[in-house]
Amino acid sequence: MKKCDNCGLENDDDEVCCRVCDKTEFKAMTSDQSSTPPPVKKSVGCLAYAIGGASFIPVFGLVFGIIAIVWGVARQVRSLIILGAGGILFTIVLYSALFYFGFHQRGGIYDKLRSQMATNMLNSAIKEVEYYKIQHGHYPNSLRDLDTKGPNNLSLYDPTSMERKGTNEPYFFYELDASGTSYFLRSVGPDGIPFTTDDILPTISEEERKHTGLKLVR
What we know:
With 218 residues, this protein is mainly α. 44% of the residues lie in helices and 6% in strands. It has 3 domains: 2-29, no CATH class; 45-103; 109-215, Glycoprotein, Type 4 Pilin (2-Layer Sandwich). It has helices at residues 23-34, 45-54, 61-75, 78-103, 109-136, 206-209, and strands at residues 2-3, 10-11, 173-176, 183-186, 214-215. The protein has a 3-stranded mixed β-sheet with strand order 3-4-5, with no helix packed on it. A two-stranded antiparallel ribbon has the order 1-2. Strand 3 and strand 4 form a beta hairpin.
């Protein structure tokens, strides 16, 4: 005989549960009903994480980042979403920093690079101005009269000027003298004012300048 721990009734040895309170059966039923299967961990494989890693490639990584985020949301994989978002954020931060140091911060190596670029562009602009005179018999009234879409891929925008409004880029300073036979051409520098100490001038030799209409001093 076995005594039930719950009600004290004696039961036969071959009985699985108590005849009165069904304690053993009740416990088994509760255990079966309350138990839940362990969550199945979802896997997306190596390819998904490779795409997420590719999102850190500047510019092109934006596409991979979006794919990784969509894939992560669809499969409910948080790590993949974070990886894709991190790649997109990296590209944004990188190009924001390059834009700031390249176009807004003053001083240091970036100013020197802009100055050197301006000098090279001014030297090329002189050749185009002189070539314009050969073609038309007179100097252009404005730098906009020059062909900037020719084979030389001429750029006349002043890289040292900080005065940018929207998509409008400032041209180099160009002005004909009263006679129209000579001209002034220079970069106005960071202050945006011509004929000041921060102006950048072309670096052609004095002998070369004699064969052009370029004037350096008013």
